[in-house]
Write a structure and sequence with these properties.
262 residues; mainly alpha
Length: 262
């Protein structure tokens, strides 16, 4: 298994080396244009162009390998995804985006493996980089960070990660994941009134989540409804959650839900 510290350090090193290589090739091009006979300049420029083309082709192959990782993770093929990501991390690439995406994919994999601390470390390392065209990736990375920190019961860290997302334009999927994390966090801090604001709108959104996530979020809302005395609404939400997921698993993952199913 690829160590998180190794992956982060390798990516940082490769990004530095790539930047230096690009500068060196640029200087070489300028040097070829300024000095030597014309024949020598042409040979030099052809050599530099050939090197750049070779590096670009190798980088493109690495990019294709990296693109397979999210599909492998989603289908539960964690070992194959691990091999793909490790290959991408350890291979050289001219493309900065490929290296940064490899960290993101590894963070997703560690999250899927329930290795929360490692996922959070990878997310923080990625957010510490200059993302440039990959800036939209920061939103899903912050969601990963918030959820990992919440699983580690780091409420302060979760709050800070969520706060940064409120200023971002989110896609529907990101909005749904944010709502699920918000409900989980709010239940832990006892923000029952906030959880029940616009309750039916929230329930309608939660229906779009995968069944296990929807069941957990609706269970939190059922608990909030019970806490503020809306018992009929609580019973309705609890029954909906029971249809979507195993109650025993819900309670084992979030013991506070035992109040709904004593």
């Amino acid at each position: 298994m690829l160590a998180v510290d190794t992956a982060i350090n390798r990516v940082r090193r490769d990004l530095t080396l790539t930047a230096l290589l690009k500068v060196a090739l640029g200087i070489a091009v300028v040097g070829c244009l300024m000095v030597g006979p014309e024949a020598v300049r042409i040979i030099g420029l052809l050599g530099i162009a050939s090197l750049w083309l070779w590096l670009s082709l190798n980088s493109a192959r690495g990019s294709r390998v990296a693109a397979e990782s999210p599909l492998l993770i989603a289908s539960g093929q964690f070992e194959e995804a691990e091999r793909n990501i490790e290959q991408t991390v350890r291979s050289f690439s001219l493309f900065r985006a490929v290296k940064l995406q490899s960290l993101h994919h590894l963070a997703i994999l560690r999250h899927a493996q329930r290795r929360w601390q490692e996922s959070a470390a990878l997310a923080r390392a990625l957010l510490g980089q200059r993302l440039g065209p990959l800036q939209p990736l920061s939103r899903s990375t912050r969601l990963l960070l918030a959820d990992s920190l919440l699983e580690m019961n780091d409420l302060r860290g979760t709050y800070d990660a969520l706060g940064a997302l409120y200023r971002e334009p989110l896609s529907l999927t990101e909005m749904l994941n944010l709502l699920a994390i918000q409900l989980d966090y709010s239940a832990r801090v006892g923000a029952w009134q906030w959880m029940m604001q616009g309750a039916m709108s929230k329930v309608q959104l939660l229906e779009l989540l995968p069944a296990p996530s929807s069941a957990r979020a609706q269970s939190f809302m059922a608990l909030a409804a019970k806490k503020i005395g809306r018992l009929d609404f609580s019973d309705w939400l609890r029954a909906r959650a029971q249809l979507l997921a195993d109650v025993g698993r819900l309670v084992s993952e979030r013991p506070m839900l035992k109040e709904l199913w004593p």
